[in-house]
Design goal:
Helix content: over 70%
Radius of gyration: 22 Å
Structural class: mainly alpha
Oligomer: single chain
Largest sheet: 2 strands, antiparallel
Distance between the termini: 11 Å
Length: 520
């Protein structure tokens, strides 16, 4: 069996698992076993594929043997294999977290008969987007994400979840229409939707047509990635979902949009320069997002705004457009997937322990739950970019790549990135101080210092305090350990990301790769 035959399994395994869990109905233990096994196998498959592609050439397969440009091409290079592996790990950890929540609370938050099939379809959509070799298959991956995420974001059918779910799906559909329109125009102009063939033929189009197609795709992917000003939907959508759903959305869904932007900039439009526009968008995304975080009094909303702001770092690195910058962007993307997911899981534990996620209501958690304090503090310091954590390493690498270019705009972005990092640390440490260090009998002066936050959204929401199952704590602790591992093993991981950056800017001919696979 040739290694390329492993590639379709990345999507096929989750889809098969989703169908099997759906057949299993309400047999909770069987559904859990199937879901966990599926994600473990996918993780092992992704690691195996990464070892193969890192040692040689990328893997590509034309599904069912259809020739180009008609066949659906699946393509796995170092970037795709790395992101599939990281995504599988995150999806597995969040699944274990949700298993603990379901065992403790029943099916109110995550109805088992619906949750597991939808979750595995979401996983299949994410993996399909990462290994898509043509734009239409990438669009299909996005639509799988949309269908599954709409089900997951409205679990429980509360009024707030239905309302935010409607906003989420409307915005996503607008993005999908833009994306599909761009795909149709590209096919009409070039006669193919295969990304390798598009890259070869794009130079034949007039520059104004190239620019139009470029902007159309960037806008469509910008909505998915939540870049400013297309990020307005995210801070209200994510916090209302159940804790495990919010965690996986925050960690992965925006990164699918970032991944699509990376492919667009490095492969499809390598000769079309919109880097100045992207730099301005990156700066606005960083600053507006972090200012929104500073103005919040609810932990999930704080993290949602920091999620937006830190997407700006990834766009920043992409716009620098050097091998070092692309490598730093990939490293920062992996870092952010892990750390952002971990923080949302920690906040889910805080909500259960304290009955609220409002920093105005939660007090004294350091004494009451010291383990929970550590599970929040470590990823918070990491996201804030405090040395020696991976957040600092990624930002330092981005700033170094920008300094090598040395233009005034680059130095402006470096300054904006530093300010964003400091304000992120301020917002997260203020939440730490109020929720963990502040005691029940703190003075009136302390309360007066945070009075300006009393009108912040969702500041008064209080729910019932609930028991925290060990598996939820273990899943969160495991993710914290992985986030620390990004620092401990930063050297080897960053070398991998540098190879990815160099490879993206000097891609292998996918057309020739497919032809070799067909002949073999």
């Amino acid at each position: 069996m040739t290694p390329s035959l492993l590639v379709p399994l990345v999507v096929g395994l989750p889809l098969l698992g989703a169908a099997t869990t759906l057949i299993a109905g309400r047999r909770r233990r069987l559904q859990i076993s199937i879901s966990v096994t599926t994600l473990i196998l996918t993780l092992a498959l992704a690691i195996a594929m990464f070892v193969i592609v890192d040692a040689g050439t990328p893997l590509a397969v034309s599904v069912a043997g259809w020739p180009l440009p008609f066949g659906i091409v699946l393509y796995v290079d170092r970037l795709a294999a790395l992101l599939v592996a990281v995504s599988s790990l995150v999806l597995l950890a969040v699944l274990l977290f949700s298993v603990g929540q379901g065992a403790a609370d029943g099916d109110d938050e995550t109805p088992v008969s619906i949750f597991h099939p939808s979750y595995l379809i979401l996983a299949a959509g994410i993996f399909d987007a990462f290994i898509a070799g043509d734009l239409f298959n990438l669009y299909v991956g996005f639509e799988m994400l949309l269908v599954a995420s709409y089900v997951l974001i409205t679990l429980g059918s509360t009024e707030s979840r239905i309302r935010t779910g409607v906003v989420y799906i409307v915005v996503s559909l607008v993005s999908s229409v833009l994306f599909l329109s761009a795909v149709a125009v590209i096919y009409g102009a070039l006669g193919t939707v295969n990304m390798a063939q598009i890259a070869e033929r794009m130079g034949d189009l007039p520059e104004n047509v190239q620019l139009l197609l470029h902007i159309l795709l960037l806008v469509a992917f910008g909505v998915k990635a939540a870049v400013f000003p297309l990020s307005f939907w995210l801070p209200d959508s994510y916090p209302t979902a159940p804790a495990p759903v919010t965690a996986v959305f925050a960690g992965l869904l925006t990164k699918v949009g970032v991944y699509a932007m990376i492919r667009t900039e490095t492969q499809l439009f390598a000769e079309s320069d919109v880097n100045t526009l992207l730099l301005c968008v990156a700066l606005a995304t960083m600053i507006v997002g972090v200012l929104g975080a500073v103005a919040q009094a609810e932990l999930k909303r704080i993290l949602s705004f920091t999620l937006v702001s830190h997407v700006g770092y990834m766009v920043f690195g992409l716009a620098i457009a050097t091998p070092a910058a692309i490598g730093a962007t990939v490293y920062y993307t992996v870092h952010h997937i892990i750390v952002q997911t971990t923080l949302f899981l920690a906040v889910g534990l805080i909500e259960r322990r304290a009955g609220s996620t409002s920093i105005l209501k939660v007090k004294g958690l350091f004494t009451a739950a010291p383990v929970l304090a550590a599970l929040y503090l470590i990823p918070a310091l990491n996201l804030g970019g405090l040395p020696p954590f991976s957040g600092f390493i990624g930002k330092f690498a981005l700033f170094g790549a920008a300094a090598e270019v040395g233009t005034p705009l680059m130095f402006t972005l470096i300054a904006g990135g530093i300010v964003t990092s400091l304000l992120t640390l301020y917002a997260l440490m203020r939440a730490w101080n109020l929720s963990f260090w502040r005691e029940e009998d703190d003075s009136v002066e302390t309360e007066a210092r945070i009075q300006h936050l009393e009108n912040a959204p969702a500041a008064d929401e209080v729910s019932e305090r609930r028991h925290i199952p060990r598996i939820m704590t273990a899943a969160t602790a495991g993710m914290v350990a992985v986030s620390v591992g990004l620092t401990v093993f930063a050297g080897p991981l960053y070398e991998i990301c540098e190879r990815i950056g160099s490879g993206l800017l000097e891609p292998v001919s996918l057309v020739q790769l497919i032809q070799v696979e067909e002949e073999s």
